[in-house]
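[Meeting: bench + compute handoff]

Bench side (C.D.) handed over the final construct sequence. Compute side (W.E.) agreed to return the predicted structure before the next meeting so the bench team could plan truncations. Sequence as handed over:
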Amino acid sequence: MSKTLFDKIWQKHVVNSTEGYPDLLYIDMHYIHEVTSPQAFDGLKTRNLPVFRLQRTLATADHNVPTKDQHLPIKEELSRKQVEKLSENCKEYGVELFALGHQKQGIVHVIGPELGVTNPGMTIVCGDSHTSTHGAFGAIAFGIGTSEVEMVLGTQCVLQYKPLTMKIDISGKLGKGVTAKDIILYVIAQISASGGNGYAVEYSGSAIRALSMEARMTICNMSIEMGARCGLIAPDQITFDYIEGKERAPKGNDWDKSLKEWKTLYSDLDAKFDKVYAFEAENIEPMVTYGTNPGMGLGINENIPLSKDLENKAEVASFIKSLDYMGLTEGQAIKGQKIDYVFIGSCTNSRIEDLRAAANLIKGKQKSASVIAWIIPGSKMVEKQAKAEGLDLIFKEAGFDFREPGCSACLGMNEDKIPAGKYCISTSNRNFEGRQGQGARTLLASPIMAAAAALTGKVTDVRDFLN
């Protein structure tokens, strides 16, 4: 019987299945961080349980860490306590931890792939919704809640209802200045922020196959922003080349054995999906969001919609509320909107490829004097590579603030917050009300779109710098 890639991986990991109940799913890799793990460890203590499989568990500090002066004690009390608690718990239970100051510390969804821990065919979980990032390797990866973090720590399994399957095919060739971030923002704008509810999404098509692994991670990362349970892309030679030689990737005979298995990970030609979408890459232009969910996005040369033109009349009230929060108006052109901050970072766009693209655009130029611009590498390894290539100097000479690794201004859980009423063009994944700080106004875009805005002080078509 023909199967989708998702079905192949899921079925291989089912420990027990009873009709009418969630499946008991074995988990190959469990990533943890300081925000969702404290209560889970407390649960283990209450039950007097050890961490069931230490070799399948990896921890890092990322959400609450400052991105300046990381050698000093954390100023914010809650952030400091959470980071300290993670260190205490990992020490007590023997969990490997990349703590603040460790040469491999970084955002949880950046370090797994760059170390070669994330591999095709795996089931991967973390107490973080953007765990879907790891699906770029042909893995089933999804976020879990704190009680489920405890379950995985104690049993290496989790109870999950099997989602439906969706295929999103992107065919054709991307235009100049159009990136993976634009692809996923376009898709979410087309099917809405709830269009993927209840689905595991597989991305396919010639435009997807042409992407690098870092670009594929960007797409899978934001699958959750259309409500999907996870996103994944079938592994291919690009995947294998990326993994080979990484510190914790299989070696020698183990590599040969793994590679043979990985090459079987694809959806059969006649596999049936519960829903299928198809889009043409040529129709995608550089994207930017204007509202308070990632589905409220448009091409750089488009205007904000009019409420009277909305197909779903039930959305009119929330649409008007969103524009009121953002300080924008119906029918307004998004191009030319003044911005105050630029944030290039997060688990969506903080990898070395993202920093290289931004630096290449910025080199030899100066940012607008009216803009505060932050560059946050996704890990210590990315930071080290950026410095080795001189990217940090390019950013600094252009007036950008090149900082240390962490989740930073993606979310208002650390010192990097956007002030109320200020506009930030951000390479992160969410533009919810208050996401980057109370009253902050977020416009999502790609690294090169953000870089272009930093140079001009307004939302700008990056292609103006590329032509």
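W.E. noted at the follow-up: The longest helix spans residues 77-93. C.D. will use this when planning the next construct.
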